[in-house]
Amino acid sequence: MSCSLLEFCRLQELKTVRDFLFQSQKTERVEENEAENQLSWDTSDWESAWESGDHKEEEQEQRPTGPWLQDCTVSLSPCSDLLVVAREHRAVFLSAKWRTDDSGREEMTLAVSWSGTLSSEEGECVSSCVCIPLASQKRSSTGRPDWTCVVVGFTSGYVRFYTENGVLLLSQLLHEDPVLRLKCRTYEVPRHPGVTEQHEELTILYPAALVTIDGFSLFQSLRACRNQVARAAAVGSDVIQPPPLAYKKWGLQDMDSIVDHSSVGIMTLCVFDQMKNASVLGGFHASVKGSPPAMSQYVTVGGGPYTGFYYAVEGSSQPLLSHVALAVASKLTSALFSANKHEEESVQKHKPKVEAATPLGIRFGLPDSRRHGESICLSPCNTLAGVTDDFGRVTLLDLSRGVAVRMWKGYRDAQLGWLQISEERGDRDFSPSASLPRRHALFLVIYAPRRGILEVWAMQQGPRVGAFTVGKHCRLLYAGYRLMGVNSVTSQGWQLHTQQVCLLDPGSGALRTVNIPFHLALSDKKSERAKDMHLLKKLSVLLKSRDLEPDVLGTEVKSALLEIKHPAMKKQALESLLSNRNAPVSCLSDITRSLYDTLKQQDPDQVDTELLQLCCSQTKLLQLYTDVQQLQSTTDTEEYFLKEEVSRVGPILHRYSQLTSRPSVTFAQDSPDSPLSAQAFLSQMEVTENGELKVNRGSEGDWNQLGNFLFWGCLCGKSPLQKVCETLQRAGISPQQLLTLLLSVWLQREKEVLQQPEETVKNLLSLLHALSTMKGAVDQSWDPQSVSPWWQQVRTTCIQSHHSAAALLAALVAHSAAKSSISSHRDTKLHSEWEAVSLELEQWEVCVCQLEDVLVLQTLLLMPPPQGAAAAGAALCLCPCVCEGGIADSVSKWVFRQNLAPQRLKEILQEGEGPDQNQQDTDRTAELLLAVCRRFPHSLSPDLLHAHCCWEYVVQWNKDPEVGDRSLSSSLDHLKLISSPHVQLGISSMMWSTFILKRFSAAAFLMEKVGKAAKDRLCRRDVGMGDKAVTQFLGCCVQLLQVLMESDSAVEEVSPPELSVEEAWSGAEGPASPLCVVDSLSIRYESRYDILR
User: Fold this and answer.
1) pTM: predicted TM-score of the whole model, two decimal places
2) How many structural domains compose the chain?
């Protein structure tokens, strides 16, 4: 992976910016044309035709078409959210905005937010500017700037501070000479324990002076000025002039001319360098201090000498407070020149007094009488600097030693920038020094406008690692600083998103940054591993992009994958590719096959075995996926058809389908018709050591989706059954897993199966026959007199399913397939005149009978309640348990939901309903209930059903006695309809002890306490219901006690009933019903008739 230029932003209204900044040139040319017209003949009439055609060309010639951006002062914020373009006294501010392009992607643009005139003094022009983002002081900040301050230097010597909207915050005259260059230094986290922590500062260069402003005081002053301006704008008052800034001014001596500078920061010499400097400066008898002093290093470029090094000892000069000098100057002026005060003020504007600079001599320099420096660019690590000169050379300086270590020639008018690249975390995994801090690589970026080329060089003696052909009128923007107002405490946890070097192209308005991989600074083996890491990152970026065409994506990914050298990296890249959902199947197959062929051509001793096995297995799985996908477009026909069986259960299937086909809301990703991606297919498949395929069962949704992909086309008749089964058999998938997948898709898609039951049943029978004949499905030594594990798996799946209709159809089909298999087995082992009795067929008969019973019962339970009836209070069990009263319990809940009267239920059970029932739905309900009772004659006998209904109604009444008074009356009605006194006594005794006794005792105590009918409030407090409900409750208690007396007296005359279960359900197991009638028969309480009467 090599260097690259990435466009991250684009400028809007660039033509408007150019026209605004170059208005003076256009105005001067128009005035010249008007003067020439006044001195010439009036030929407007006959030359109008000629001028009209050339008018547009003249306007275009008047506008600057050359490198107009080189004539402007340009500054870009390190956060890339503000760009300032200034020329003479005008300036344009462009702020970041987000917009959506034609393809729907979000992209950042820089649009004009403010334009106007910055100069306030007559004749002054903008000479330099910087955009300083100020950090937010809020605790929730993550590193984004709060706002950006624009610092502008003028030829008059003034330095002014503006907001992003062009509002002036502060203006101060620091020196009477023109401002040459503004530079800023912000806080950087020290990379090593012994590195001196550098402070923030703003440096201002004049022709013979250097002014430094402390960053902390500047940050506080700018915040206060901005708050004061905002407060004054909100109130409408005048802005109070803030106090001037505290600063230091150094008079730079011993240089003929200075054009640029760099503030290296605070440094401390070692003991040897301290003694050497003392000897050179003071001679043999110079004294040396005990500890080396801290010094601020400044490097200047210009002429005589070519480069100068200055050292200012910390604490040698106090900050200058110009407002104190202003006050003294004002008093002297008023005392000495009070007579001429008004005249002087009217003639000449008063300028503040400027303090003298503290002399600072040059320590040493690089003398070159013919060479003149033009610019200097300091590296982020403050140890190197690049210098350009008028000879077209770029010189690399080692600032710690003060020597030139490298020089490039042929770069006239060059522009410099630095890039510091951090090592990726993954690169340290292969390094022997993985526990050490991350390394950093330094690169020098050189833009040569004369040649239109941008080059990247590795430091210090490294080669050129990148070169790009760009325009000849671009500007290389390098800030060299980050956010101001950050320290070692506030920077913890921040992720500062800043651009180090940006290239601005005025032709297209594009802002591009240089992307350099870290491995380009390395060599040999380390470089190969680092390059593999960057290739892996490039591959992940390609897989995330959705704009590339499949062919282009496949070519790019294949080249990146084959270029990776390390086997572990190549395996990780292949796994990342196979797990990506955006890559098409053809691309995955082609890349995997190419990688497999490449590995096979290499020396077997040098090929990683795990990588080769992974390529082989994934190639096999992708081929299986492609084959199954292609087979879904062809069809074939089969001869199996269960017409009689499907016709017999057809009516109940039709009614069940009507009740379950209600509209429902589903998400698109959860739809069973959604296609299975190749990545999801590969994630569920695993190739074993012996070459067979194993399906890894994950979530239920993924399992069903895989079953849909393999078998739903066959069940619908859209895929050839035999070919699909042969393909799956050749792949090596076990028949048991294929059978589980087939049954899961069959049961899951019950609604689609019931829409065309005959065709789907025919295809399911063909698939079961095909799967049963596979190797390993049915054991060859299986005895028909025993239970086959293959068919037992089908029965277990059908019985445990909640989809009763699909389970019944699957059982009918499996029964037919098992019968055919046993018949063929019988023909080979028995004589034709004997009929084989198989335990397997007996198991199927019982299973089919049970599933038919469950389907009829479930159809009844799915009947919706009539309009106006109360909603169901209990949950509906789709596959009810038939053990210990489970059937009667489910039907009793259904009776309560249907609000079926006890007398009506008795008539239905006795088949005595009259012709007065006119509603067709009621007839259908009665018909379904009778059908269920015929299938469960013992579990749904009238006494058992009335007993469970009685219990269900009293349970519902107990949940809300205030509202459910009718439920208690209905419960007593069902209790009275029980013919067996044993069942009646048991149920009434359980009702009394469980629900009635506590409330009845509370009501009795309350009436005894009050002595009369209690009020509503007392009834609710003690009994839990209102006074009216208490009255009805006591009436029901009287009826319950009457039933208790009657049933207790009749128990001795009648023998207890015998409770039994249907033969098909005799071996079923499961939890018992909440009401066990068998237990209630054994409950006997001693009755006191004297108390009851």
Assistant:
1) 0.54
2) 4
